[in-house]
Amino acid sequence: MTDESTLAGPADTRPRRPRGGGGKRRKPRRRSKALVITAWSAASVVVLGGTGLGVVYFKLNGNIKGVDINAALGTDRPEDIDNGSQDILVLGSDSRSGKNAKYGKDEGAARSDTAMIVHVYKGHKKASVVSIPRDTLISRPECETDDGRTDPGGQRQMFNTAYEVGGPACAVKTVEKMSGIRMDHYLEVDFTGFKKLIDTLGGVDITTKKAIRDKDSHLDLDAGRHTLDGEQALGLVRTRHGVGDGSDLGRIQLQQAFIKALLDQVKDVGVFGNPKKLYDLANDATSAVTTDSDLNDVKSLAGFANGLKGIGAGDMKMVTMPIQYDPADPNRVLPLEEADQQVWDALRADRPIPKSATEKSAGDKGDVGDVVAGH
Length: 375
Prior knowledge:
The strands form 6 sheets. A 7-stranded mixed sheet has the order 1-14-9-2-3-4-15, with helices on both faces. The longest helix has 21 residues, at 248-268. The chain has helices at residues 37-42, 54-63, 69-73, 161-179, 191-201, 230-238, 248-268, 275-288, 298-306, 337-348, and strands at 65-67, 86-93, 112-120, 127-131, 137-140, 143-144, 150-151, 154-158, 185-188, 204-208, 212-214, 219-221, 224-228, 290-292, 316-320, 323-326, 329-335, 372-374. The chain has a domain at 37-200 and 272-277 and 289-365: 2-Layer Sandwich (Nucleotidyltransferase, domain 5). With 375 residues, it is of the alpha+beta class.
């Protein structure tokens, strides 16, 4: 891992994003869970290099779905600190409706099955990623529901119910209340979009140090080298029972390992000399992604992605939010408040996450993260 001791630096001025006004929030579409960070990686191919084909622009532009987080949350948000950094909530949901029904029973609502805060440091050369376990019991704030009612929130609520209750806006509000950090952007992708994106990339190369078998996620891999297609890749980032103790904490480690392999793969694809592949990837990425309204057009999304393309796997520090198992329920985890505050304070100040913050955490333990490696 690259040393992050050089991340800190003097503050500079970053243009403030226009704040949304009032008005009725559009009902956000339910997007099913996948490794949303792939949207960040693959969206860099949206830069079409001046082809001049207006029809391409409008086709891709029409693919992107946007959610007006600013209008939904108004002024009840943390201060927008302009120190050159960016904070992005990368989220997925576990909807089983429509094309996603093969992955389980549709229970009528989606929950955030993958959640990561991506902090991009000043200069956009390094990043820290904080995964939030879906089973974390938190104090969830009051949120507007999809049908216009108000959910009062409450204590000891599972983190992933925020999305179920109020979609992306409630998820962002919950994360901001937990961390005290304003999210600059929101990204989400779905099951089918994730699979198609991986297939268009030509698969992702990984090495498994142990066999992974999980009938629930349709995954059956021997130990050794593999080029995962979209279906297999989706199975890998979803598996809970194929490795470790079957908990969500182990799955988070697998997701983090896969992200690093994917980032390395995207850098080596060489699509810019292949116009058809470039377009196919751009079409897949824009079709799969849901963004905040500041990124819901090709030009904005491409500019955002282009500013992040220099960040590779070795430039990224990945941790799980400091937690402990709930003494009252071993299937739930609780935030380690003092350690969490160390994490949030570091990100807010645009500094590396101190090692002391995660030393006593139940997350990032064991060897699950070492099961998968890139080639």
